[in-house]
Amino acid sequence: MDLEELKEVMEAAGEKSFRAKQIYEWMHGKLARDFDEMTNLSKALREKCRETYLLTVLKPVKVQESSLDGTKKFLFELPDGNTVESVWLKYKHGNSVCISSQVGCRMGCRFCASAIDGLVRPLTPSEMLEQIYAITLLTGERVSNVVVMGMGEPLDNYNNLIKFIKLLTDENGLHISQRNVTVSTCGLVPQMEKLADEGLQITLALSLHAANDEKRRQLMPVAKKYTLEEVIDACAYYFEKTGRRITFEYSLISGKNDGEKDAKELARLVGHLNCHVNLIPVNPVKERDFVSSSSEKVLAFKNKLEKYGINVTIRREMGRDIDGACGQLRRRQLHR
Ligand code: SAH
Q: Whole domain around residue 222: which residue ranges?
């Protein structure tokens, strides 16, 4: 609940409205895990809250730590028994958490493990927020960056996503800077346009993965609904409205989209935009037969893009020994 909702609840219960602010601070600022921690509330009020409301919705069921780079992967159980995963990444500039926005996903991207069984259900704002709250408490370290790049398509869960971002970046909560929040989408054009009009300062990342419609349709069913021209126009609109540089994610799949011609097409497609291209060597998923491009191929692709004047980085791979890529840990757990 946000402050307005808490105020309504308190008023309806015959409580003073300043109680709402106190509870809000316990929930979103101090990350209380139990109503009994809320010591400035009367015992009776704490009891009343406990009878009616769930304060926490996530139960950590598994934590894996990478022996390569300290990346941690968390599997959380939701109240209905479903599970979601989140990843904690430690960088020099701060700690980053990659969260899930849905259980499963209905976008069907061919290379993605989250898509294999389709969508189970979207996550509530609480279930998104608490991935960050729980990880902050479990690691004892402040989270400075949040990327919505875990399981699910965030823009397919639009209203919950917006509420989540507002709570996450609220000055009376964890107060994570909007500029440190990135939302990644497979390219749902109407929602991208709506997001541009929200007045937020978050970064939009667009999963491109191919630079022409024909190839993109083979990898991502969503490309049958929106053409690249429409998607790129929506990116340009996002930049125009927010001033935030777009990130393009491009997963390199051996023999599919990693050739010189692909690089040239990509440069032509995005070259006119204020953007940044992030190359990701595709993570092999057991159920799929995509093979990652060799490191020489990845480097050649990067050099080619740079020659065309594109800002480009290769995503540093982290947590590969702990099923780092989208949906892999949950799948393994489900199979067990
Ligand atoms: N649904 C959103 C966010 C989730 S996935 C989206 O599509 O952007 C985050 C990123 O990881 C996306 O760019 C997605 O295409 C990519 N991805 C998914 N599975 C992958 C894999 N096996 N290897 C490399 N990248 C993958």
A: 59-335
Q: What CATH number is given to the structural domain containing 189?
A: 3.20.20.70
- Cβ-contact 40, 22 below 8 angstroms: yes
- For residues 89 and 200, membership in a common domain is answered with yes
Q: pLDDT tens, 83-119?
A: 999 999 998 889 999 999 999 999 999 999 888 989 9
**Ligand 1 pocket check for 242: Cβ under 6 Å:** no
Q: Whose CA is nearest to atom 22 of ligand 1?
A: 283
Q: Are residues 192 and 231 in the same domain?
A: yes
* pLDDT digit string, tens, across residues 215-249: 999 999 999 999 999 999 999 999 999 999 999 99
* pTM summary value: 0.95
Which residues are designated catalytic? 85, 326
Are 195 and 283 part of one and the same domain?
Answer: yes
For 259, 278, 318, the CA distances from 296, given in Å and listed in that order, are 12, 16, 19
Same domain assignment for residues 123 and 263: yes
Q: Distance (Å, rounded) from C-alpha 198 to C-alpha 294? A: 40
